[in-house]
Design goal:
This protein has helices at residues 10-23, 34-39, 42-48, 60-68, 86-92, 102-109, 134-145, 169-178, 190-195, 326-332, 337-343; strands at 5-9, 28-32, 54-57, 75-77, 96-99, 117-123, 150-157, 184-186, 203-204, 230-242, 247-248, 254-255, 260-265, 282-285, 288-293, 301-304, 316-320, 350-353. Helix content is 26%, strand content 25%. It is an alpha/beta fold. The chain folds into 2 domains: 10-212, Alanine racemase (TIM Barrel, Alpha-Beta Barrel); 230-353, Lyase, Ornithine Decarboxylase, Chain A, domain 1 (Beta Barrel). An 8-stranded parallel β-sheet has the order 8-7-6-5-4-3-2-9. Strands 10-13-16-15-14-17 form a 6-stranded antiparallel beta barrel. It starts with a strand and ends with a strand. It has 11 helices and 18 strands. The longest helix is centred in the first third of the chain and has 14 residues, at 10-23. The chain binds pyridoxal-5'-phosphate. Pyridoxal-5'-phosphate (PLP) binds next to helix 9.
Length: 354
């Protein structure tokens, strides 16, 4: 095996879930485990997050996998069903569904279910991606309230700009004008959980913060007392000494200006490390912060060892984790921690720790 491993801390998941409850003490927590739990492994993440009040997924197959792993929590399909036939499995596995458009409402109204199900009715509060506009939302709610297939209606919306300090006021005025206190609510993603207490009623839906990355670009995960869950760890598989004028990697993008030692790390874009990471992206070798050099290859990348003189073949490398926040790697690569975590490739073995 190559030395590259994604270490996953289940206790960090539990810690971050406890932080969600500290931010939103009265709320029920629907932990979002879509995208293979943001790259952390669906089933193991659900085990680390077992104190959640429910789990939200994208696909029926994920919900079925959770049920087959013995998870009895409420499970929410975040985009609902994609065809009327899927309602049979929704019924069989006792799932909760989002309804975000009229066709889904018709499918449910025409379905024969053994038990009524909980429906999260989605309001479009300004993102204009999924959900009913306010007038249609009121009609849909009225119709749902009469259906024998429905056990409970939860009024739901998703914010386009909860990461901005002033980002939810127009959406919240749509919510206030449209949602009825007779039914429960589900409004908040991670960004709203950490900075908009007015959104916490009912079910909150944390994703990224559970995995220990920050939902707010200008603030670190540590500032929210979150712990990184994934440590992407590898090792040096070669050490080179460059002379002034020597370059490293495809395209010869980095050229040494003086004699310097560099290391070659077993991790590349086929592992999910971003190919567009520029020279200078933070990385740690033997516990010392340093930088990547030149272009990321499919299976390898280069690092500066000028400040790590004792590093030899086999030296430990942290691509991201407790020492190198995934958010800082993301900033260097002009993306967000979400994308890096979700992109960790299946070929990278995971090790789970209590
Ligand atoms: C992904 C998702 C979330 C979680 O968002 P984070 O920013 O990761 O907290 C919440 N609600 C919905 C509808 C989502 O699709």
């Amino acid at each position: 095996m190559r030395p590259l491993v994604a270490h996953i801390s289940l206790s960090a998941l539990a810690h971050n879930l406890a932080q969600v409850r500290r931010f939103a003490p009265g709320a029920k927590v629907m932990s979002v485990v879509k995208a293979n739990a943001y790259g952390h492994d669906l089933i193991h993440a659900a085990q680390g997050l077992k104190d959640s009040d429910g789990f939200a997924v994208l696909n029926l197959s994920e919900a079925i996998a959770l049920r087959e792993a013995g998870i009895l929590h409420p499970l929410l399909l975040l985009e609902g069903v994609f065809s009327p036939e899927q309602l049979e499995a929704v019924d069989h596995y006792a799932l909760d569904i989002v309804i975000h458009h009229e066709a889904q409402l018709d499918w449910l109204a025409n379905a024969t279910l053994q038990r009524p199900i909980r429906v999260f009715l989605k309001l479009d509060s300004g993102m204009h991606r999924l959900g009913f506009r306010p007038q249609a939302f009121l009609q849909a709610r009225q119709r749902l309230a009469k259906l024998p297939q429905v056990s409970e209606i939860v009024q739901m919306t998703h914010f386009a700009n909860a990461d901005r300090v002033d980002g939810i006021s127009s959406a919240m005025s749509v919510v206030a004008d449209t949602m009825d206190t007779e039914f429960s609510l589900s409004l908040a993603n991670s960004a709203a959980i950490v900075q908009h207490a007015s959104t916490h009623a009912g079910w909150v839906r944390p994703g990224i913060m559970l995995y220990g990355a920050s939902p707010i670009a200008s603030q670190s995960a540590a500032s929210f007392h979150l712990q990184p869950v994934m440590q992407l760890q590898s090792a040096l598989i070669a050490v080179q000494t460059l002379s002034a004028g020597d370059s490293v990697g495809y395209g010869s993008l980095f050229t040494a200006t003086q004699t310097m030692r560099i290391g070659i790390v077993a991790c590349g874009y086929a592992d999910g490390y971003p190919r567009h990471a520029p020279t200078g992206t933070p990385i740690a070798v033997n516990g010392v912060m340093t930088r990547t050099l030149g272009r990321v290859s499919m299976d390898m990348l280069a690092v500066d060892l000028v400040n790590v003189p004792d590093a030899q073949i086999g030296a430990a490398v942290e691509l991201w984790g407790a020492q190198v926040p995934v958010d800082e790697v993301a900033i260097a690569c002009s993306t967000i921690g979400y994308e890096l975590l979700c992109a960790v490739a299946p070929r990278v073995p995971k090790q789970f720790h209590g």
